[in-house]
Amino acid sequence: LECSTASYSYRNLADRIPPGSRLTQPSILPSRLAITMTMRSLFSNHSHYVETFQVFLKKSTEHQCMLDFIHKKLPQLISSISNGKTDINVLSIGGGSGEIDLEILARLQSEYPGVIIHTDVIEPNAEQINSYKECVAKAPDLKNIKFTWHKETSLEYENRIMDSKEMGKWNFIHMIQMLYYVKDMPATIRFFHSLLEPGAKLLIILVSGRSGWAKLWRKYGPRLPSNDLCLYISSADVEDMLDGSGLKYQTYELPSDMDITDCFTEGSKTGELLLDFLTETYNFSKTAPLDLKNELIEDLKKPEYGERRGDNYFFNNTLSAIMIEHQNGETYLQT
């Protein structure tokens, strides 16, 4: 979990992904049912969600850590995906309004000068598609890049492709901060891996299994509002799935943090918005039971969730980039 209201619309999905069960839906004990019913999912109020996300972007280095990876590491990872062809096919799943996509495409252009790059963007939010098109219109030097936008979810795309039996092949597929919002993570990865050309690559970026997010979800997931729009998964879950498949992949850590100092100032508007974003709860500070609120706030100060630097506290927002390679003769293990 861009050029418009949110820097990355893959987190901006209240009206994007059809509701579905979580990969590992936390069971809510009867004794906790009354507690959780007093709280609402953050995604129940789209405008409030966008407000919390804007604060998250302002207080975190998420944007910068992705750009660092794209600029410094990605070029060498995509240096062999074309197989000498004069065209490259790129598939963006959850492209949002295109800011990160255009950074990736710029690296592809630099690596393959003069090559035509065909880019298909799967994005269910019409506003984000319009923003993406505006970004393209303003961007220089895109003459060799051809765009096609599809207003649909990843599952709708999968169903359309399966129904049409037109299994086009791709040189590069990327899924950035979107796997939280699919019904079946393993099946989604299996499907898109099956669309890769030999030598092609699939890039997945999501929160690291060693991040504060993973620890927060494990401990507090059952005590927070149930939300069928979002899976509590991290890179550790994806790696476990890939290890069982026998696929060749590499994981790269993208260090990132978020300044959460305001969370510890009672009445701070910024702190309340950050707590809403961290817990995915609408008005967490006002609706959460006092014992839950106090416990979570104290936990956020602990080293397993981040670090203290002077008077400031920083939440561990580290991401993982997982690059999966399709090798010649490789078949995917269906599990």
From TrEMBL:
Residues the record lists as binding substrate: E62, N317
Organism of this sequence: Micrurus lemniscatus lemniscatus
Subunit structure: Monomer.
Keywords, alphabetical: Methyltransferase, S-adenosyl-L-methionine, Transferase
InterPro entries for this protein: HHMT-like (IPR016673), SAM-dependent_MTases_sf (IPR029063)
Pfam families: Methyltransf_23 (PF13489)
Protein name, entry field: Histamine N-methyltransferase
Record flagged with keyword Protein biosynthesis: no
Residues engaged in binding S-adenosyl-L-methionine: G94, E123, Q128, S154, I176
Any one GO BP annotation for this protein: methylation
Single Gene Ontology MF annotation: N-methyltransferase activity
